[in-house]
Design a protein that fits this description.
Layout: H1 3-15, H2 17-24, E1 27-29, E2 40-44, H3 51-59, E3 63-68, H4 76-89, E4 91-94, H5 101-114, E5 118-121, H6 139-147, E6 150-157, H7 159-162, E7 176-179, H8 185-191, H9 194-213, H10 222-232
Parallel strand pairs: 1-7, 2-5, 2-6, 3-4, 3-5
Antiparallel strand pairs: 6-7
Helix pairs in contact: 5-6, 6-9
Length: 237
C-alpha cells in the first residue's frame, strides 16, 4: 500500500470516519446506484461543509471536491494539518478570486474523471443560504457530456443541523445520504442539442435531488438569493 493510500485509510477509518458516523448516525440509501469503480460524478445539494465529509463515507469511494485555495496556504503546525487533511481527503484547490476560476474548475473536474476517479459537484454553486434547493448551473452537465462519466444525483439531509449556517462548531444530529439512479444522459442527448441539452441534464439532476431531499424549490440561483439576503442585513453602526 502506498503512502497516499495509507494516509487515506487513516483519515477514513480512524480520524474522520468513526467520529462522523457516530455523531451523525449516518444513514445511507441507494448505495447500489453508485458504481464502485470508473469515472463518477456525484451531484448533490449543498447545506453544510459537512456534505463533503459524509458523501465519500456514504458512497465508500474517495470523492474529489473543489475547495478554497486558502486551505492550502496556512503556515505552522495548524497550516500543515489543514493541508494534510484536505490533500488526503481529495480536495482540489481553486483560487476563487481568479476570474478564470469557473472554467478552470470544469477542467480540474474533467481531469479527475478521465483518471477514472469520482468527482463531487454542487450544481447550486454554493451552500443554500436559506435551506431551499436552488437552480442548478450547467457545469455538471458539461462534465458529464465531455467525459461520459456516470452521473449520480445525491441528496444530503441533516448536515445543516450538524453545522448550522454561520457556525464553526459541530453538534450531533442524524444525517441521511440518498443516492438516486444515474441520469440517462444518452437518452436526453437524443432529444436535445448543445445548450438545451446541458440545461435538460441539469434540470433532471436537480429534479432528482429535490425529490430525494424534500427541499422546497426556489427556481433561482443560490448566489442571487445569497446576495439579496446580504443586502437586506442591517449595516453595522
Amino acid at each position: 500500500m502506498s503512502g497516499g493510500a495509507v494516509s487515506r485509510a487513516v483519515l477514513r477509518h480512524v480520524l474522520i470516519g468513526p467520529p462522523v458516523k457516530f455523531a451523525t448516525r449516518l444513514k445511507v440509501e441507494g448505495r447500489e446506484h453508485v458504481p464502485p469503480t470508473g469515472p463518477l460524478i456525484i451531484a448533490s445539494n449543498h447545506l453544510s461543509f459537512m456534505d463533503s465529509m459524509v458523501i465519500p463515507l456514504a458512497c465508500r469511494r474517495q470523492v474529489h471536491f473543489l475547495g478554497k485555495a486558502e486551505y492550502f496556504q496556512g503556515t505552522g503546525l495548524r497550516g500543515a494539518a489543514v493541508r494534510w487533511f484536505h490533500s488526503t481527503g481529495g480536495t482540489i484547490p481553486v483560487d476563487r478570486s481568479d476570474p478564470r476560476a469557473a472554467a478552470r474548475s470544469l477542467e480540474l473536474g474533467e481531469e479527475v474523471l478521465r483518471r477514472g476517479e469520482a468527482f463531487g459537484v454542487y450544481p447550486e454553486g454554493t451552500r443554500s443560504p436559506d435551506g431551499r434547493l436552488h437552480r442548478g448551473r450547467t457545469g455538471v452537465a458539461r462534465m458529464a457530456v465531455s467525459t461520459g462519466a456516470t452521473l449520480v444525483p445525491c441528496a444530503v439531509i441533516g448536515t445543516d443541523r450538524v453545522q448550522p449556517p454561520g457556525s464553526n462548531g459541530f453538534r450531533p444530529a442524524r444525517v441521511t445520504v440518498r443516492f438516486g439512479p444515474p441520469i440517462d444522459v444518452e437518452a436526453l442527448a437524443v432529444r436535445y442539442r448543445k445548450a438545451a441539452l446541458l440545461r435538460a441534464i441539469t434540470d433532471e439532476v436537480m429534479e432528482a435531488i429535490g425529490s430525494m431531499s424534500g427541499q422546497e424549490r426556489s427556481g433561482r440561483y443560490a448566489s442571487d438569493v445569497k446576495a439579496e439576503l446580504a443586502a437586506q442585513e442591517p449595516s453595522s453602526p
